Amino acid sequence: MAESLAEAVSRRRTFAIIAHPDAGKTTLTEKLLLFGGAIQLAGEVKAKKDRMQTRSDWMKIERERGISVVTSVMTFEYNDNVFNILDTPGHEDFADDTYRTLTAVDAAVMVIDAAKGIEPRTLKLFEVCRMRDIPIITFINKMDRESRDPFEILDEVEEKLALDTAPITWPIGRSKTFCGSYHLANSTARGSDTEVETTPVNGPRAVADRLPENERQAFIDETELAIEACRPFDRDSFLEGHMTPVFFGSALRNYGVRDLINALGEFAPPPRDQVADTRTVHATDDKMTAFVFKIQANMDPNHRDRIAFARICSGKLERGMKARLARTGKQLGLTAPQFFFASQRQLADTAYAGDVVGIPNHGTLRIGDTLTEGESLVFQGVPNFSPEILRRVRLEDAMKAKKLKEALQQMAEEGVVQLFSPEDGSPAIVGVVGALQLDVLKERLMAEYGLPVSFEMSRFSVCRWISADQPADLEKFLTVKRGDIARDLDGDPVFLAQDAFSLRYEAERYPTIKMVAIKEYH
Ligand code: G4P
Fold it and tell me: In the 3-class helix/strand/coil scheme, how is 126-171 assigned residue by residue?
C-alpha cells in the first residue's frame, strides 16, 4: 500500500552537524552515510571532496587552506527513517551560509572533541541553534584518544551553553582502552559499531571485564555515579532546546555512531512547523511548499548549472509539477528535482516535507525564495547578514565592466557576496561577512568569467538595512543621505556608514529610521 503523507513525513529527520573545525564532522558524516548504506567505503566523502576540488579552479581555496567551502545535502535511510544531513562550511568566514542552512534543519548534532571541549565555533553555532530552538544531540568524539573526564565535559556543556545534559551512554574505557558504550538507562552495551544490536548486560559490573583490571572499579564507580547523579533524559525538554542527550564515541574508529543514528531516529523531531507571512505551515499539510536556503553553482562544470537547495516544508513534491515562485508570482516547472547521495545525484520523483531537493535552474531561483502549489505565501526567517567587509571591485580591463556587472549579480544571487548599488550611480560595492568570501569571489570571477579583479577599500565600513514606519520619513532620509544610500539585490535601501561611530551618530539624529543588521529574505 502506498505510504501516506503523514507516514512519510513522520519518518523524516533533517539535521545538520555543528562543530569546531577538526572535531570530526567530516569523519562522522562519512560514518553516518556508511552505516546508512549511502556509501560503500568510508573515505568517499573526502574522496568526493577531492574530486570536486580538482574540477574547478576556485575550489583550490578549499584545498590550499584545508577548509570545507561547499555546503550540500546528503540523504540516507537507516532502519525506518529517511535522514537528510545538511552539511555546513566549517570556516567562520562562511558563517552566513551556515546560518541559512540551519534555517532548514529540524535538529542538530553537536560534535565535541573529547580533549578540547567546547570550542569557539561550537559555541557560536550553538547560539544560532538556540535562537531557533533547534534541539541538539551531543556526540563527544575522539574517545579513543587522550580525553577529558566525561563528567568534566558534561559540566562544561552545562556551564558554557546553559544546556542540561543527559548522558544516554557512558564510555567503556578511555583512549587506548576505549572499547564501546554502556547504555545507562537500558543496561545494554555495544562494542564497536560493527555490532548492529546492543547486548543486554546486568549492570556496569557485567561489562567491566572488557577493561584492564586496574580500570574496572573506576568504570563501575563512575557509571553508577552517572546513573545516580545525571539527569534522566526528558524528550520534551530536549525538543524545547533545554536539554541535550549525550553520546560518547569515536567516529574514526567506529564507536558510538550507531547509538547516535538510533537517537536521531528515536529522539529527533520529524519536520517542524514553519512560519510564513500569512500562516503557520504544517509539514502534513496537503499542498507542497518549500523555500530555498542555498544556491550552489558549478556542481558539475560540464553543465555550468546552478542548483537551488530547497527545503520542503509541507506536502509532497512530485517531479514534473508546477510551482509558484512567490517573489515573481511566476510558474516554475519542477522537471528535474534531485536528491543527493554521497557520490551521486538522482532524480527525485517524489519528495516529502523535511526532504531537501536540488532544483537546477539558470538564475530563476534566489536564496530565500518560497515555492508553493499556487498559494500566495512567503516563508520568513532566512537571514541575510549585514556584511563586515565592504569593497569596490577593480577591474583590470575596463572594457569588461558590463560582464563584471552580470557576474557580480549572479554571485550575489548565489549568496557568495552581497551587492550594493549606490544611489549616486558610483560603482557597485560588494559586501562579505568573512575575508575568505572575497578570495572565493576573486577566484570564481577569474575561473568562470575570465575577469581578473582586485579589491579596493570603500569609504564605507558599515552597512544597515533601513526602513521607517512613515514612508515620508524614509523618503526624506533617502534624499538627504543620497550619497550614503545604496540598494541591495532586491532593491531594498541600505545606509552605508564610514564607521560604527558615524552609524550611531546618524541613528540618533534620525530616530524614526530603523537600521537593522539582519534582513530576512522576503
Ligand atoms: P572536521 O570535518 O570537523 O574538520 O574534522 P575531520 O572529520 O576532518 O577530522 C579531523 C581530524 O580528526 C582528522 O585527522 C580525523 O581523522 C581525525 N578524527 C576524526 N574523528 C576521530 C576520532 O574519533 N578519533 C581520532 N583519533 N581521530 C579522529 P587528520 O589527520 O587531520 O586528517 P586525515 O588525514 O586523517 O584525514
Answer: HHHHHHCCCCEEEEEECCCCCCCCHHHHHHHHHHHHCCEEEECEEE
CA separation for the pair 439, 437 (Å, rounded)? 5
413 lines ligand 1 (CB under 6 A): no
Cα(38) to ligand 1 centroid in Å equals: 20
How would you label 197-231 residue by residue, b for 16+ Cβ within 10 Å and e otherwise?
Answer: ebeebeebeebbebbeeeebeebbebbeebbeebe
User: Is 25 near ligand 1, meaning CB less than 6 Å away?
Assistant: yes
Cβ(87) – ligand 1 distance below 6 Å: no
**DSSP 8-state class, residue 57:** G
Q: Tell me, what's the pLDDT at 343? A: 60
DSSP for 426-494 reads PPPEEEESSHHHHHHHHHHHHHHH---EEEEE-S--EEEEEEESSHHHHHHHHHHTGGGEEE-TTS-EE
Alpha carbon nearest to ligand 1 atom 31, residue:
22
Cell of 279: 500562516
Q: What's the ipTM?
A: 0.97
Atom of ligand 1 minimally distant from the CA of 28: 7
Per residue in 298-324, pLDDT (tens digit) is: 655 555 678 899 999 999 999 999 999
User: Ligand 1: distance of its center to the CA of 515 in Å?
Assistant: 43
Chain position carrying cell 570564481: 444
Q: Is 216 helix (H, G, I), strand (E, B) or coil?
A: helix
Cβ atoms of 393 and 444 within 8 Å: the answer is no
Q: Which of 260, 266, 247, 345 is nearest to 31 (CA)?
A: 260
pTM for the structure as a whole: 0.87
Cβ(109) to ligand 1 under 6 A? no
Distance CA 47, CA 49 (A): 5
| CA separation for the pair 245, 267 (Å, rounded) | 9
* β-strand partners of 165: 244
Q: Is 48 helix (H, G, I), strand (E, B) or coil?
A: helix
DSSP state of 117: B
Give pLDDT, residue 415. 85
Q: According to the model, what pLDDT value does residue 57 have?
A: 38
